[in-house]
Amino acid sequence: MRHDPSPSPAAARATSEPPAPARLLVRGLAKSVPGGRQLFHGLDLAVCGGELVAIVGESGTGKSTLLNILAGLDEADAGEVEVGGTRLGPLDEAARTRLRRERIGFVFQAFHILPYLTLGQNVALPLALVSPDADRAAAEAGRLLAAVGLGGRADDYARDLSGGELQRVAIARALVHRPALILADEPTGNLDPDTAARVLALFAQAVREGGAAAVIVTHSPATAAVADRVLRLEATGLRQGPAHG
Ligand SMILES: Nc1ncnc2c1ncn2[C@@H]1O[C@H](COP(=O)(O)OP(=O)(O)OP(=O)(O)O)[C@@H](O)[C@H]1O
């Protein structure tokens, strides 16, 4: 785990290479909740492709709210969010939905896997929403299921899976459309420590190989430990580690 606040290991891989472009850029973000209490202001963040950033902080500081703003599901009071080179601010609702479908992958604590679809159908869904090529979506889903250790299970129904297996399906689904940005909220919240460690290692490997920028909100030191950078959310923005406090 690094505690260096400077941009990304992806950028630092070779000093002779130009820095990797940020897949997620946040400038001067501010957010208050209804009633007027300000959660944060002046929040800046840049995450490069292949980089995993963990965001930690005390309960109620606004981590989930921040994730929702990054996804274009909630509006900031001030500041800008740019995903894969596109600024969210000027987009209307339809364009935001399209950007979310095409450029962002989500891993939720509650999985949101559809029980009466097969694993292959669940994983293929984000790609099927943006591409008419069903064969390609099925092939990509099969490839990612194999990558998360569920090869050969594409025709099994999601309702029959364990929590750890469902979480692996959720990770495959978040990656299938090769998003610029992956947002994960407590991605291993319901898993036992051994399964969580395996799932996290798969997630980190897939993010790094796929070149997405990833932001993980977590209370878990074990989850934060797989990140390249750990940032703590405070009222004045994101500060570098420690993992808790
Ligand atoms: N729509 C809303 N109306 C009023 N208050 C809200 C609203 N949405 C969020 N809040 C408040 O904003 C604060 C931040 O909530 P948020 O869920 O983002 O925190 P968090 O850091 O993710 O917390 P936790 O770690 O407990 O999940 C909380 O005090 C919450 O009650």
Features:
10 strands; disordered N terminus; alpha/beta; binds adenosine-5'-triphosphate; 245 residues; Rossmann fold; single chain
Strand content: 15-25%
DSSP strand count: 10
Element pattern in H and E: HEEEHEEHEHHHEHEHEE
Bound molecules: adenosine-5'-triphosphate
CATH superfamily grouping: P-loop containing nucleotide triphosphate hydrolases
Would you identify the CATH architecture? Answer: 3-Layer(aba) Sandwich
| CA distance, first residue to last residue | 17 Å
Pfam family, one: ABC_tran
Protein name: ABC transporter ATP-binding protein
GO molecular function: ATP binding; ATP hydrolysis activity; transmembrane transporter activity
InterPro entries: AAA+_ATPase, ABC_transporter-like_ATP-bd, ABC_transporter-like_CS, ABC_transpr_LolD-like, MacB-like_ATP-bd, P-loop_NTPase
General description of the model:
The chain is of the alpha/beta class. It has one domain: Rossmann fold. The chain contains eight helices and ten strands. The strands form two sheets. A six-stranded mixed β-sheet has the order 6-7-8-3-9-10. Helix 7 links the parallel strand 7 and strand 8. Helix 4 crosses helix 5 and helix 5 packs across helix 6. The chain is globular and about 50 Å long. The site of adenosine-5'-triphosphate (ATP) has 11 residues, from helix 2.
Condensed summary:
With 245 residues, the protein is of the alpha/beta class. 34% of the residues lie in helices and 24% in strands. The protein has one domain (9-240): Rossmann fold, CATH 3.40.50.
